[in-house]
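Ticket 4471: requesting a sanity check on a complex prediction with adenosine-5'-triphosphate. Repro inputs:
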Amino acid sequence: MELNNNGQERIKKAALLSIIPGLGQFYNKQPFKGVVFLAIFFVFIIQMATFGIEAMTGLFTLGVTPGQDHSLFMLIEGSLQLLILAIFLILYAINIYDAKRVATLASIGIKTNKSFIDIMKNVYQNGFSYLLALPAYAAMIFAIVFPVLVTVLTAFTNYDFYHIPPANLVDWVGFDTFKDIFFLSSYRDSFMAVLSWTVIWTFAATTLQIVIGVFTAVVLNQKFIKGRRFFGIIFLLPWAVPAFITIMSFSNMFNDSIGAINTQVIPLLNHLPFIDIDAISWKTDPFWTKIAIIMIQGWLGFPFIYVLVSGILQSIPEDLYEAAKIDGANAIQRFRTITMPAIFAIATPIFVTQYTGNFNNFSMIYLFNEGGPGSVGAGAGSTDILISWIYKLTTGTSPQYNVAAAVTIMISIIVIGISLLVFKKTKAFEMED
Amino acid sequence: MSTSTIIRFENVTKQYDNDAAVLDNVSFEMERGKFYTLLGPSGCGKTTILRLISGLVEASHGKIYINDKLVNDVPANKRQVNTVFQDYALFPHLNVFENVAFGLRVKKLKNADIQKKVQEALRFVNLEAYENREISEMSGGQRQRVAIARAIVNEPEVLLLDEPLSALDLKLRTEMQYELRELQRRLGITFVFVTHDQEEALAMSDEIFVINKGKIQQRGVPTDIYDEPINRFVADFIGESNIIQGKMLRDFVVQFDGKEFECVDQGFNPNESVEVVIRPEDLEITTKEKGHLKVKVDSQLFRGVHYEICGYDENGNEWIVHSTKKAVVGEEIGLYFEPEAIHVMRLGETEEEFDARLEAYDDQGVENGN
Ligand SMILES: Nc1ncnc2c1ncn2[C@@H]1O[C@H](COP(=O)(O)OP(=O)(O)OP(=O)(O)O)[C@@H](O)[C@H]1O
Ligand SMILES: [Mg+2]
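Returned structure tokens:
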């Protein structure tokens, strides 16, 4: 639409005036709005003067006198102030946008709300959903964004056991921590060792539990199998017992010298012909520890997959199999073209959560052998995964909070990235209904 | 048995586990290139017959022949038979093209051949433009057609259709009835169609098999089955009927409702007890004096094409009349009918005896004509 010069002028003026929040609204003859914006502006100025400036400089310096300035508190207060600043900036942008928009409407002759009542009505009608969501957003900012922000910032400091406030100061070190993790040989080797085992563990354990779960579900879904329900109940047992209890009893069973596996199961197996196995160092040989935890996780994790897939299998119409049979498809072809797609169409998102769950499966790793045996440097044991390594980095006698924060950031990026990727892909073959 | 026979059942019985027989000693033949309908109430064994033909279940006793070859031990994919399932049984993750191509891919045909055959099959069911659609994007009627295309792409000699229209709404259903019949003519193959809708069966079939409780009650062309039902069950199941107890006094004279009537049936024993059928549309409303029967109108429904009038005669027998004329509830009316409208049924007559009796007086009729 065409605006005459007069109108252009008016919009410009409103926008310029609202550089001081509220003035643009007064100019637009909306005094109520103007008062609100102006009040917000004053609150912000006061806040900045009493607390904000100090917090921001504190965040910048992280303290100057050791023993007096507490760098950690300054980091936290600074982060809080950053959020407040961000919120104010958003409101500031809204203020300018609003002044311009109302001026535009007025200059093309659309009636704007002048009175308090009209504005409240408008807010109630058009902004009600925003108003309702406001507390949730506020809670989210302080409950989620704030701690994440502190963690992220920590990764760029030297906050470790050499720099424990208030005795010492913590300083900004930029990307040094990340550089160390990737390039400093001692860190890099530990990081790569932990990362590669994390990946192997995630894939081996999760794939194992999915394969066992799908296999048992498919077998028990065959009509000719007798006592299917009985097996179904047995399979639920691992699920029914709390995982940490199971892991700890397995941990005892796999004890090298007194555990049931070495003292009873293997001797029993050795009675069979052609079998002669020595006691296995489940807890002291990294290879066997890894084998043991992968197997135990397979055992722990498959019942859930079994229940899930059984449900899916029962929902596949028998017709489909008969139609395929008439067309000459054999059992394997039928499984590939009917059963598998049906399972994946429904269960892929859940399979992904199984992978990300094992990626961060702290209790399995830590409760079985505390990430041991042995060490791959930087406090990590040979079966530590990233999450249990972080735990050790932050709780041990020589904590390295900055490394832990950096690794946390990387874990988050990996988990979020993979989840997004897979969820987006599965949308592509999302089914109807 | 003639060379045109394609499917033959010889004393076929089917039992599941040790339950009572689902199909009880059934024998029939089906001819090449005809449209057959299996009609019967739910649970009578229609689907079981289809599954026996397609090879998805095995007969407990008896022999099944396709093309004069005993197929009892031939697996489903080696028979020249394909099935259109009631719920279509389309693969949800494959698109239209791949659904139709499924059987061809299993048979490992060349890609170019698959392309050609699938397109041809889709053209047959008027779905050329839908190759790349997902199944979830197709309407019920279109899915139906995809299912048919998937079956005919394998060039079967027999196509089995298990209540393929029951999930469609009335209008689409009528449309698909025409299309199916037309498709069968163009393909020239045998269709075995299952339904429990008698109007659908009458409209579409070359021949109908009426089934009840695992036995074939009567088989024949639609008009014969409608006009000359063999027993109470068939008369009742095919269309609405007035069925009343009677006595065949002698040839061409039957007594019911306390009166004697002229009829066209013969070949009964004198004074034999019989059941008499008169179709509601063969009854004509007249005045009390002119009518054969006097009926008091009890209720009346407007059915669109006609009124359905229900009334009772002086002996308490119920009579249903289909008439384009309106009656007045509570009034007494007369019902008139021609001798041809009366159909007399012998009690407990088997299909063979029934056919033999009809044939006997057909011959007689020819002799008389000479
Ligand atoms: N797998 C089976 N095991 C046991 N009994 C069965 C089985 N399949 C079918 N029956 C029984 O066989 C009888 C005939 O079934 P069928 O499916 O042939 O009926 P239908 O005529 O197709 O009925 P509808 O019109 O309801 O589809 C029914 O009583 C049914 O319960
Ligand atoms: Mg059926």
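Notes from triage: The interface with chain A takes residues 54-56, 76-77, 81-83, 85-89, 91-94, 102-103, 106-107, 136, 150, 154 of chain B (CB under 8 Å). Leaving this open until the requester confirms.
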